[in-house]
TrEMBL record:
Coiled coil: none
PANTHER family (alphabetical): FE2OG DIOXYGENASE DOMAIN-CONTAINING PROTEIN (PTHR33119:SF1), IFI3P (PTHR33119)
DUF4246 domain ranges (all copies): 21-82, 97-627
Protein name: Uncharacterized protein
High-level lineage: Eukaryota, Fungi, Dikarya, Ascomycota, Pezizomycotina
Species this protein is from: Aureobasidium pullulans
Pfam families attached to this UniProt entry: DUF4246 (PF14033), DUF4246_N (PF21666)
InterPro entries documented for this protein: DUF4246, DUF4246_C, DUF4246_N
Amino acid sequence: MAPPFADSPCFDNSGCGPLAVPGFGFPLEQELHPEDRFTHGVREWFQEPNITARELAMLCLINNITDRPTWSTDVFNDTATSQLCQEALRSRLISPKTWDWCLSELQDKARIFQSSGRILVYNTGVAVCKSDVVLDKEVQTDVKYELSVIESSPHSDTTAIESLSDTSRQTRRLVDPLLYPLIYGKSRVLSEGKTVPLKNMFKHTGKCSIAPEVPVLGCWFRHGTNYLGRSTRNEQLQTGSSWSTNFQRLPCEMDFKEGHSTDVRITSYINGLHPRHQSLYHAIEKLVSASIEPWNDVLIKQSRGHFPTRIKMYGVSYEPPPPDFDRFTEAGKHPGSEPYYAAIKEAKAYCAQPDEYPSVDESGKVSLFVFKMPDDLDAWCRSGKDLGWLMRHKFSWLTHFVHPEPGTAYTYQQWKAGQAEEAIIERIPSLYEPDVEEQTVRIPFQEYRAALQESFWQKGLQVVVKIERIELNPGEPRFSGSDWHVEGLHNEHIVANSVYILEEENTSEPRIDFRQETRMDLDEFEHDEDDLEAFLQVFDVPYKQQILGGSSSPPPSLQRLGSVGLPVGRLVAWPNVLHHRITPFELLDRTRPGRRSFLTISLVDPNYRICSTRNVPPQRHDWWAEEALSVVLPPKVSVPQELVDHIDSYTDNWPMGLEEATRIREQMAKEQKYHEQNIMNHPSGFYDFNVDDCNLGDFPDLPSMDLGSS
């Protein structure tokens, strides 16, 4: 069993020597130290604490405005910004002060967009990048044509895929990385050297050996890491829950073309997409090139996000501020004095304010429990009653929680510069003394940016390509959406993704939805036993009914960020630490069929190397049969299909026929679904709020006291 972190192993799949990657020369579960790699999507990132509801509203507003066609000029136009402000203020969570912050941020985003064509949204901790200026119309036309060729080709796998137990029967995978994967103990691999050429893919097949079997992983536990990558005692992750010892999707290889530019070229075949589809290969190269800078923007290391929160607090704020109860108690003890009459006058005005939360019965009538001031306050006090108690009682009816405002603890300019250490309500130090090695300042964010084209221009990149088409018809006019998931399993080391809409016909626009893991430790928050409902609202904690109902099973600590629209021609990139799903969409005209094709590109952490199509010759029987016939027949000689089928019958579907590949795909999909549900349903933390522990009250319970005048 490998240790949790290796001392910088030298992974190599270049073909210049023996294959040295996890599973080949290294244990499958061999990992780099968090400081030496990017953060992956298996319980390694969390936002601490939750983003406040008001900040989430700000993020959503900024994303929506940046979807408008002329937004980058509108935010500098007084008339346009006035209209935008009026629309924004209709939201109860967008105040004038909040809008001012959003406008400043929008103007900065517009300046960046005008020079880069990219927009970072939901940028608190992590970020999502969207761009609408990627492929020109000519390339999009070529892509659409290539997809139609793939679909109609006799070599297409779409007919077989259609019958599989996918999320929806409407999904057709034109390029499916689950077909013909690396199979430990079965696939033939160039494990002693050599590479698979792009134009003569079966050249070195005779030099292959069978991939080694991987033993079932043990159940050693890896401790989590804090912001500095040091182990913590609060989380233990069973490694076997996210690794596959049976399969691995095969990425293709990408080399940077020249210098340190973002232009790339494909140097090994895309699994499931024959190199004959040159236009589609060219389009994928363009889209990977267009993804480099967005990936640079969103890739993260360890548990350090790129951006501090706009609103930082560890507790709940209330309004109005409490009066000086002791002053009223003391003044009430001296009837006839000047302080007494001043206090009586002030108390009358204070108690005459309308209650913040009046009690209303089922018929809509105000309940008898609404605060009622004594008819004769002077006589009430002279009878020995406590005026301070009365003020406390009225205060309990007036006080209410407030959503905190941005710009309270630090300004926009300070936030922009990363000077965001102060909090509106400061964090309470942990009640537990940390280990010596953990006694360090927590760093919730750090300004840094990846540069893939600089750091990996010699090694290149590995990416997994998937093309899916959702087909709708009048009988099934709606796609219900996909499940929450991250891309890939642990041994595939996926760290970032891009999605692009290749084609669309007669469908509404879908969106891609994002959520993330969070961490909420109530020991670090100021709160009391009456705070919980307000606490849940301020920090936008889901599962409110389950938590307030005292469920014995605490819900997972997850928080939805928001969604990004997916029109044709838009590229959206995000780190694989975010859970994502495609939202529902439907036919626009329900009398006609419609479809929408998605290209998903997943980046393997380039700090690793894993077994790829550079090392595994194509396992598809039809590709091999084509190649074999082209070798033995003279050029441009046409052979009747009957003869081809007859010759084919003697090859026993070597190396793998579609029927076997489909069966293996079902096994791999089932295994992947199991691990996916495990990851989604068992994050690294839970909303485990024990109300009995909420004991930091602002003032003691009030004794019963008659409010009558006698």
